[in-house]
Each structure stands twice: as C-alpha cells, then as structure tokens.
Amino acid sequence: MSAPAGRGGRSTAGLRELPPARWVDLGLVVILELVAAVLFVPPFGSPVGAMAAAGGVGAGTVVALVCTGTRQGPAPALALAALVHAGLAPWVLPDTGSGRQAVRAVLAATVTVWRDALTLPVPLTSFPAMTVLPWLVGMAGGVVAGRAALSSRVLVAGTTVLAQAALAIAWGDGTTLAPTAVGAVLMTGVLLLWALTAQRGRRERVAEALESGDAGVGRGSRRGLARVLALLTVTGAVVALAAPTVPRERTVLRDLFEPPLDLTQYATPLSLVRTLETDLASTTLMTASGADDSTRIRLAALDSYDGLSARIGTPTSGAARFQRVGRDTPLAASGGTRSEFSHETSVRIDGYTFPWVPTVSDSLGLEVSGPRADAVSQSLYYDAFSATGIATAGLTDGDVLTEQVDAPPTASDTRLTELGVDDVALGPVEDVPPSVQTLATTLVGSTSEPLAQIRILQQALRTGYYSDGTKSPSQPGHGAARLTAMVEAGALVGDDEQYPVLMMLMCRSLGIPARVVMGFEPAMDGDASNVTGQDVSAWVEVPFRSVGWIAVDVVPDRDQVPQQQTTEKVSNPEPQVLQPPLPLQDPAELPPTYEDEDRNDSDDDSRHRSAALVLAVAGGLGAVLLPIAAVLAAKALRRRVRRRRSGVAGVLGAWDEVVDRARDFGRLAPPRATRREAASSLAPAFPTADLGRFAAAVDAQVFGQGVPSSYAVGTIWESADVMVPAMGSERSRPRRLVARLSPRSLRRSGRSRSRSFRRFANRPASRRKRQ
Questions:
Q1: pLDDT of 639-669, one tens digit each?
Q2: Residues 520, 287: Cα–Cα separation, whole Å
Q3: Which of 177, 318, 337, 527 is at a distance of 20 to 30 A from 510, taking alpha carbons?
Q4: How many CB atoms are closer than 10 A to CB 592?
C-alpha cells in the first residue's frame, strides 16, 4: 500500500513506498531528457556536447532520487546539486583540465559559459570548459524533472523536458539535427506522459466511486491506455510525415549578440608603416620558420576609407566580423579545408609589440604557444573575410604563432580576364579627393576591361618615386589632404602608406572592388626567416571569380628615389671698369628769395593740422586693429604651444583646438563631459565634421598602452587641421570671419585645464582613467 498523496498530488513517501507508476514516469522523463540532449551535438560539432548533457541528466536524476528518498526540501536539494556539480564535473568533463585547474575552470565557467557560448564561434570544442553548458542544463533538468516525476507532478516534469530542449536550441547555432524526428519524439513522449497520468487518475476516481478494486476497472483502463497509445502513435507519425519542411537554418540567441570588440579603439595598422620603416628598420620584429621567398606576412586588410584613414570596414548588416578563435577554429571562410600543398609555418615574436596578429597569407588554422599562451588565446579575435587577427592583450617577446598555411592562388592575366572581377561587398569609401578620381579616369582613358584598367593604374604608380621622408621631403599619413598633395604635385612621391591607398581609391572610383593589405615581405632584405622593420610592405588585393583575392603590387622600388634638382643659376659677373670722374661744373645761380612771414606761419599751421589728422586716423585704426591683431596672435601662439607638445599632452592639445573652434562659433560642450559625450553634443551643430570619430581617435591614443609616438601625435593634429575648417564649411564667410576674430575661446580657464592635462599626461598608462 502506498502512502496517500497530499494536496496537489505531492507524495511524502520514501523510495520504497513509491508506487510502480512513479518509476514508469521517471523512466519516461529520463528517456525524453536524453533525447533532448542530442540537440547539443550541432554547437559542439561532435557528440561530446550530448554526452556531457547525458552525464548531467544522470547526475541530476541521482540527486532527485536521494532528496526524495530522504524527504529533503528544495534548499537541501539545491545544495546537494551544487556539491555534486563542483565535485564531479571537473573529473568527468573532458575539456576542463585536471587537478585544481579543472576545479577553477568549472567554477568560473558556471558563471561565464552562458555568455561565452553566445559570443564564441562554433564548434565550441575549440574552447576550454565549454561542456559545462550542456552539463548544467542536463543536471538542472534531471533534478527538477526527476523530483517532479517522483512527486506525481507530471505537468512540471514534461514542461522541464521541453525547457531543456529549448535551452539547447537557444544556446546552439543555426544548424539543425533531425528536427522533425527529434521534435516528434519529444512532443509525443511528453503528451504520453501527461496522458498516462490522466488515465491513471481517472481509473482511481472510478474505483473510488465504485468502492471496488476490480469491477472491470482494470480492463477498461488497459483499453483506454491502448487507445491513447494508438492515438499518439498515429498523431506523431502524421506530424512527422505531413509537417512542412523544416529549414536547415534558424535564428538563435547567438544571432542577437556580437563579440565585444571595438576596432575604433585601435589605430589603423597603416599608421605603423613610417615607424617600422624608419625607427625599427634594423630591429628584428619576428622570426618566421617555414617561410620562403614568396611568403607574405599580413597584419590587416583594410577595405574602408573615411577621408582620414583606411580601416577595416563594417558590414552593412551590422553584424560583427571579428569572432573569438580557439585551437581548432578554422580561419578560412571556406571552412579551413587543407590541400595537398598546405604546410606549417611558425612565427616567433621578438621586437613586435602591436596587437595586430601576423598571419601568413591563406592561413587555415592558428595555435598560440609560449609563456603567455593562455592570455593571448583568450584575447584572440579573427575575421575570416579580411584574414585579419587581433589580440587585445597585445603581443610581446616569446609569443609563438603556429599556422597551417595553404598555397596562395595564382592565375595568368589571360585566365583572370576570362574569370572576371568578383562582386564583393566591401566597407564604405567616403571623402575621396576629386583629384584622385580625375587621375584614375585620365589614366585608363577609354579602356573598359577591369584587369586592363588595374594594370594601367599599377604601371602608373610603380613609375613614381619612393621616399620615407629621411632623404627627401615626404610627409606621412594617407588622409585626403596628403593624397591630394601627392596627386597634384609634379610627380608621385610616397611610400607603402600612400601608394596602396591611392590605388584602392582609384580602383573603387572605377567600380573595381579593392582593399589594402599591410604586412611584411620577409625576403625583401634577402633573409626570409628574419623579419625586420625594413621588410614592412603594403599591397592591394582584388577579388576574381573562382580564385579569390589576387595581390597587386603598386609601390615603386625603394631605390627609385626622387632626384634632387638644383635650381641655382651660375653667376658670371662682368669685369669692373674704373670710370673717369665727371668734370666739375660751375655752381648754379639761385633766384633771389623773398621772405613772407605770414605765408610761412600759414604753411606751418597747415602742416600741423595735417600731422594731427594723420595721427588721429592712425590712432583710430590702431585702436581697431590692435585688438584684432592681439586675438589672432594669441590664438596662433596658443596653437603653436599645443602643437609642440609631445605624447598625451600633444593629443589633448589637438582636441582642445577643435573644442575652441566650436566655442568661437558659440557652441559649448556640456561641463565635465567626456570627449565622446562632448562630440555627441556638438555634432548636430557641425554635421560636416566627424567629431565622434575624432573623439574616439583621441581616446584611443590617450588611454592606449604607453606614450603616443610623435607620428601618432602628428596624425591626430593632421585630422584636427582638417576638422577645424570643416566645422565652418556650412557658415557664411562673414560668420567664419567673426568666429576667427572671436575672443571667446581665450576667456575660458585655460590655465587650470592645462595644469590638469599636464598632471593627466604625466600619469603612467595603467593609472589613467577615462574622463
């Protein structure tokens, strides 16, 4: 005899006193939970996720049996489940490590795995401790559904099974695994569980009403159960066969999230060119093993331009292209299938201290080793479209990158012409100088075939001059002002920073998709294994159908330097001839003079009045012009002082110059606002000036690691020089003149701000706080 059920069907009996029907319900619930565990196979790419979920279901069911047998409440059950999780998971899960490290990994993943599973790319087996997710879901489902089934709360048990399946789908990926079969089995099983309980309750009520244990009740119940089973079987079969085709892709939670990576916090990689080719020319940056003369090491592919710099574009869909990568995450967009020509290349970091990850062209996989392997791996992001990687923790001496590399695509010009240029969506290109577009159309003329146009532009650029600014004048940067000066000069003069960007913009103006790739050519100095700053290089890539991105070299040879032409004229003076003295002449006879005192007095008075008038006019003009000259001189002196600062103070001086320009126009930033908040407040008044991007660039230098280099400070000031006139482009000429002569920006408390900026700039980078 079983103990009577309490209110709501809750039993207070131990395990020995449970009726057989409860064990049937528990068995059916466990089977349905194991079926739901199969849904963890797609996100892990292997059965390891389903096995972890099945282990969690088993552990949770044991906890439910123990708590039911000892008649424990919800709080002790939760404590026992937590103890089993912390004590058992580190030993049974395959990706948590061993020993204390496994325990720490499980405890940390218990909190972070819910976020990481949505932001990390699949398969999740590439990352450690990710099986904690299916283990927790299975264990929670086993505890709740097991206790509900043993307590005759079959409605709660069935709902828990469906919730476990829903969690597996929501935290999975867009692919499906036999959705029709799994869905039909789960729904039919849950309905069967509920039908059995309903049939059992009906039989008990009839038996109680008849006050008899038999009287045909058992036979009627068996017939009713058979009818229920037949109906559910037919319903499940009809649903499985007649249901519409389930799509292979579905929207899950990971589609609503994107990795927390903001590229605006990092300077464009092209800004490193001048520093690498001059200051670090003889410094060993990295050592590449397995590289040959044709190897190219790439840092980033830049497909967007905003008039200030070339950057990595953002897709129009708004989705992030950079995702976390793990040990087995494929880097290639095609999935990382190796060919017979694939090989392994190892890059050991020496003097390279930048966040952009050096990868060999057509890398299929990446593995990090060295003393900082864990820190670098956990901060590693990769964009398969642009083949660009970045480690937010930075790279330093001792880090080793082992890469699986495939042979780069090659094809003849005849073959490329037959294939044609591929239509690829790239980042936006804005504020292109008109002279660049004019130069492109002038060079190609009537040529309409894309590859022929590319070769014409390539030949025109390679006949230019190369200069890194050390032996001949050549300004750094690749903003609109720099490219305009380069194109409008008598001859093209630049380096690996300007030529590729100019080529990309000319191709894009002709409708040809192109992007700039910045990296190294290790064999440039004759040693393919030793990469120095002298090996820095940049080139252009154009996509062609069936073969992918093809590299186009546009930078002139480095020995093709501009000739120093002298324009001094040779002096050829004529001989000096001593001329004879002129003959003496008789003194001229002067006419007689007549003294007229009245006339003299009148002339003196007239001269005095004229002098007084001149002085009065000069004084009036001086009174008007002196304040104007003083304002202009004060602003010029202020700008010169700011411009000559170095490090963080120089960057902040450029921001002050832009804010003072807005103040002269009568627009004030909110007090105690951050730079980004101030830019957002001022942006509506100056729509033609991209104040938000400028503020982000200033913050990237101020709050970045180390002290900004002189080149970075110069780049920020170049942007400020473009920003200041752009802020007044929509005002009339008199309004711009009034703003230029306005003393408003001179009246603010510049002295106190300068002191605070000096104190801020003198702090180490680790102590700076965003203001």
A1: 888 888 888 888 898 989 888 888 888 888 8
A2: 12
A3: 318
A4: 5
Q: Note the pLDDT tens digit of each residue in 13-38.
A: 467 777 787 888 888 889 989 988 88
Quick one: tokens of 733?
A: 């000429």
Would you list the DSSP string of 316-358? TT-----EE--TT---STT-----TT-EEEEEEESS---SEEP
The whole-angstrom separation of Cα 439 and Cα 369 is 48
Q: Which two tokens stand for residue 744?
A: 């408003």
Q: What is the DSSP letter of 767?
A: G
pLDDT the model gives residue 752: 39
| Cα separation, 682 vs 663, whole angstroms | 10
Whole-angstrom Cα distance, residue 688 to residue 726? 6
The letter for the amino acid at 433 is: P
For the chain, give every domain's residue range. Answer: 17-176, 178-247, 263-405, 413-552, 620-767
What number is the average pLDDT over the span 621-644? 80
Query: What burial class does residue 340 get, using C-beta atoms within 10 Å of its C-beta: 0-12 exposed, 13-18 middle, 19+ buried?
Result: exposed
Q: What is the 3-state secondary structure (H, E, C) of 606-650?
A: HHHHHHHHHHHHHHHHHHHHHHHHHHHHHHHHHHHHHHCCCHHHH
pTM of the model: 0.54
pLDDT band at 635 (very low <50, low <70, confident <90, very high): confident
For the chain, how many residues are written? 771
Specify the DSSP class assigned to residue 491.
S
Class in CATH terms, 413-552: alpha beta
| Residues in Cβ contact with 6 at an 8 Å cutoff, skipping those fewer than 6 apart | 12
DSSP letters spanning 676-697: HHHHHHHGGG-TTS-HHHHHHH
Mean pLDDT of 89-100: 86
CA distance 727 to 736: 10
DSSP helix, strand, coil percent of the chain (3-state; round to 5):
50, 10, 35
Q: How far apart are CA 184 and CA 527, in angstroms?
A: 64
User: Which has the closest alpha carbon to 120: 379, 442, 407, 479?
Assistant: 379
